[in-house]
Amino acid sequence: MIQKRPLRMTRQRRIILDELKKVKSHPTADQVYEMVRRRLPKISLATVYRNLDILSGAGVILKIESGGTQRRYDGDTSDHSHIRCVRCNRVGDVFVSPVHVPAVDESQACGFTVLGHRVEFYGVCPECAREKKSSRA
Description:
single chain, alpha+beta, Arc Repressor Mutant, subunit A, Dna Ligase, domain 1, three-stranded mixed β-sheet, 33% helix, 14% strand, globular
């Protein structure tokens, strides 16, 4: 049996994690890079991308993938859902009771092996709603 090695928390990973935990904005990798560069000016964008993949793969952070938009990252790994603005793609947290999802077998899923599911809410964020109201006035 192959045992997983524990995640080595390098200085770069620690700083990326610290910066992600400071914000509730669910930044893109490029935004994380800009945040981390303040503390590590010589870090490369490729290093940030690689470490975000490692941290999300280890379950230390969440990778939020939504069709047609850039991946975003969340330092809060508690059980919660997300909401995305259909105008500006801003992402926020939604804390609701878990949704019951029926079991799906391969015959119902066109032969796919189901690995999991995700509930994503979408709407218009408060800033975009205000902009729409002010443009009508």
